[in-house]
Amino acid sequence: MALPTAVRLFEMGARDGLQNESGPVIDTAIKVELINRLSETGLKHIEAASFVSPKWVPQMGDASEVMSGIDRKPGVIYSALTPNLKGLEAAIAAGVDEVAVFGAASEAFTQKNINCSIKESLERFAPVIELAKANHIRVRGYVSTVMGCPYEGEIAPAQVAAVSRELLDMGCYEISLGDTIGVGTPLKAKRMLEAVSQQVPIDKLAAHFHDTYGQALANLYAVIEEGIAVIDASVAGLGGCPYAKGASGNVATEDVLYMLNGLSIETGVDLHKLALTGHWISAQLGRSSGSKVALAMGCQGS
Ligand SMILES: CC(C)(COP(=O)([O-])OP(=O)([O-])OC[C@H]1O[C@@H](n2cnc3c(N)ncnc32)[C@H](O)[C@@H]1OP(=O)([O-])[O-])[C@@H](O)C(=O)NCCC(=O)NCCSC(=O)C[C@@](C)(O)CC(=O)[O-]
Predict the structure, then answer these.
(1) Could you give all domains of the chain from N- to C-terminal order, each with its CATH number?
(2) Could you report the per-residue pLDDT of 26-45, keeping only the tens digit for each?
(3) Burial per residue of 48-85, b for 16 or more beta-carbon CB atoms within 10 angstroms, e otherwise
(4) Its catalytic activity (predicted)?
(5) Rounded to two decimals, what is the model's pTM?
(6) Which of 84, 108, 146, 148 is the one with CA 20 to 30 A from 156?
(7) Which residues line ligand 1 (CB under 6 A)?
(8) How far apart are CA 123 and CA 142, in angstroms?
């Protein structure tokens, strides 16, 4: 299949990135400034917060304050995770544009992450999706552990396909396929996608790959060759997953953008501004950017 002419980048840094930071809870003002800076790069889709239990993920405990603190740039969609009705109600009150439910293809990961079975998770999501739709809010669905689980190991592509199909049938507009612990390789990614795309049209799928084993760009190239045109990524490669020990961040948005620019695939995102934002947030966290491209570009100014 020909490569897509355009790709939509879905920025994860403020949520998937920051949720996993150990140490003190990051100031709300820093989260707000990160999102505001990201909004100026041309990104049109920013996951800004997570309305989950603060006991489970302390870094996301100020989701409402973050949402009320940011400058909403017209044309940018600000989304948040909502695992249950309590989260959705808070997200609606905070004025999110879009929400996401998050399940997994692995029973053990689902238990560790959201404290229920896959079946129970889908039952829990049903009223969330219903209420979101009644409020004219679109719902995205995540499926984690699509290429491997930290607790169960190998995950059958058919299982990924089944959970993805359920979420689509329940009303999610898009299913994001998460290689939560970054264990995938290109052939595995293609095989997983082949199974899923028999159940969910490829234009309703997104790739959400972590870079733990340094395979994320190769895996992304493999799936865009198959028609994937939505990519989740995290500025400066921030993040990991609090319930997946050893998982490193999402692939760095700067690195994905550099690759897409090289392929003449349109994104509308300014690489220089994005790299500056990545250096800025990395400095706030007391480290260097996790993006190889940003480091190579060397633009450290604010
Ligand atoms: C789902 C629950 C809440 C179940 O957790 P639970 O303990 O089974 O829930 P519960 O209903 O028994 O409630 C326990 C306490 O949490 C409170 N609570 C309950 N819900 C909420 C809420 N929405 N907001 C705020 N507080 C909430 C509730 O009020 C209660 O408070 P208490 O009475 O003890 O004071 C919990 O397991 C949880 O919050 N998990 C979140 C885990 C998480 O955020 N993981 C990271 C995101 S997923 C991810 O990163 C992967 C992804 C998406 O990026 C894709 C990939 O890379 O693969």
Answers:
(1) 8-297 (3.20.20.70)
(2) 999 999 999 999 999 999 99
(3) bbbbbbeebbebbbbbbebbebbeeeeebbbbbbbbbe
(4) (3S)-3-hydroxy-3-methylglutaryl-CoA = acetoacetate + acetyl-CoA
(5) 0.97
(6) 84
(7) 16, 19, 50-53, 55-57, 81, 83-84, 86-87, 102, 113-115, 142, 144, 178, 180, 208, 210, 241-243
(8) 15
